[in-house]
Amino acid sequence: MRIVQITDIHIGAEGEPTRDVDARGNFLAILEVAAHLNPDYVVVTGDLCYSTGSTKVYHWIKAQLDKLLLPYDIIPGNHDDTALLAKAFEREQLLLPSGEMAFARAIGGFRFLFLDTAAGILSAPQAEWLRAQLTDAQGRQIIFMHHPPLLAGIPFMDNRYALQKRAVFLHAIEPCQYPVQVFCGHYHIEKSVHAGWGQVHITPSTFFQIDQFTEAFAVDHYRPGFRVIELPDIDTVRHTVRYLDVAGW
After folding, report:
1. 248 within domain boundaries
2. Which is nearest to 58 in space by CA: 44, 71, 41, 68?
3. pLDDT score recorded for residue 15
4. d(C-alpha 202, C-alpha 209), whole Å
5. β-pair type (72-75, 41-45)
6. Residue 234: what pLDDT?
7. Among positive and negative, which fits the CA dihedral 35, 37, 42, 48?
8. For the domain that residue 56 is a member of, what is the CATH number?
9. Prediction pTM value
C-alpha cells in the first residue's frame, strides 16, 4: 500500500497574499506529482488554510482532491476550524461529541488513527478515545495528527508552537504493546524523532520550510515537500520525502 501525506498547504482566499508564495500552485503541483506515483490513499494533515478556517478555501481544496479519484482523509491543524472543515468535506460524522475530529480508518488491510490538535492540545475526550483504540490493538499502529507529540529539537517551534500537555498523548498510548508510528506536520521541516514507544515523522510543508537551528524565525528554503509512505506488509513501514523545484526558488 502506498500513501501520500501532504501537510501545511496554507491556502489563502482567492487573491490573498501568502508571503509571496504561490500556495495554490504548490498544492496543485504536489497533487500532480502525487497522482503519477499511483498512491492508494492520500492524507492531508492539517493547516489547510493560510491563517484561519474558511469554507470557501475548504471547498476549493476538496474540489482538487476529488479530482484525484482516490480515497483521501483530512484532519485540521491550528490554522483550521474543525467544525467548518468537517462540514465542507461532508465528514461531520467523524466528530466526537466534544467537537474534535478523531476517527479510525481501515483501508487496504491496514488501520489508521486520526487525531485533531487544532486547539494545540490533545483533548481529554480524544485521549480517552485513543486509549480505547489502542487497548488490545494488534500490530504496529499508525497515527496521523497535525502537531508532533514530542519536542523535536527545533528551537523556534519547540519554544513557541509545540503541542501542549504532551504527557496526555503518552498516557493515551500506554496500553499499546506494539510500536507506534506518528506521521505529522506543523513544524515545516523534515525530521524523524525516535522514542522508546515508537517514532514520530514530521513531514515538510508545501508552503515553505523553517530553519531547524535558529531561535528566531527564519526560512530555510521554499521547495514544497510531501511524504510517500509504503506499507508492503503489516510489519514494514518505508517512507521518503520528496521536494519539488518551483519557479523562482
Report:
1. no
2. 44
3. 87
4. 12
5. parallel
6. 84
7. negative
8. 3.60.21.10
9. 0.97
